[in-house]
Specification:
This protein is of the alpha/beta class. It starts with 8 loop residues before the first helix and ends in an 8-residue tail after the last strand.
Length: 209
């Protein structure tokens, strides 16, 4: 069995505690399951030395899947704003470069570490819980921090895909990327979810070059 397990029993309790402490930041009561984690991270290549950036890793469900796919190759940078989640991640995944920071500062974080743009960005952020301005700022950071041929993946819950925040996210993704492909519903996840696969970022006029 891999040393990197997707969801541990204590992760669920920790996730619920953090949700109750700050529901507008955590915005979910349980971590993503193994099937969704594999779907979200499927763009991480099995060869080469890619730079993979993970936004909002939480308790590490996507972190585990990224580490399995990298198998010691490349670089894995995780950006987590919640210090309690970050502490658990640092102890569990010592090989991951962890930044306790706001994902909107992605370009600065990359520059501070001497990195260029990321080959892959994987997001576990709760987009539907964010105000429109925050969604805009985060996606500007993503497109500014992603290589021209890079890929960005994020997920949404199937049961809320027609709510105004979810529809706005879909529109923003299509504005920011030339290609946006929704994946199939992952029914094994709780709740069911699907993945957006986004490629060829468009950088808005005035965004950092």
């Amino acid at each position: 069995m891999s040393a990197y397990t997707a969801v541990r029993p204590d992760d669920r309790a920790e996730f619920l505690r953090e949700f109750l402490r700050d529901p507008f930041i955590v915005a979910a009561v349980t971590p993503s399951g193994r099937s969704l984690s594999e779907a979200v991270t499927s763009t991480v290549p099995h060869a080469g030395e890619p730079l993979v950036v993970e936004l909002g890793p939480g308790t590490g469900a996507f972190t585990a899947a990224i580490q399995r796919r990298l198998s010691g190759r490349g670089r894995h940078l995780a950006i987590e704003i919640n210090p309690r989640f970050a502490g658990r991640l640092a102890a569990r995944y010592p090989g991951v470069d962890l930044a306790v920071a706001d994902a909107r500062d992605l370009r600065g974080i990359l520059a501070h570490r001497g990195h260029g743009r990321a080959d892959v960005i994987v997001s576990g952020l709760p987009w539907a819980a964010f105000a429109p301005g925050l969604q805009d700022d985060l996606l500007d950071a993503v497109t500014a921090g992603l290589a021209p041929d890079g890929s960005f993946t994020t997920f949404a819950y199937t049961l809320t895909r027609w709510t105004p925040p979810a529809l706005r996210l879909r529109r923003l993704l299509r504005e920011r990327f030339e290609e946006v492909v929704p994946g199939r519903t992952v029914w094994a996840n709780t709740p069911p979810a699907f993945v957006y696969y986004c490629r060829r970022p468009r950088r808005r006029i005035g965004a950092e070059s």
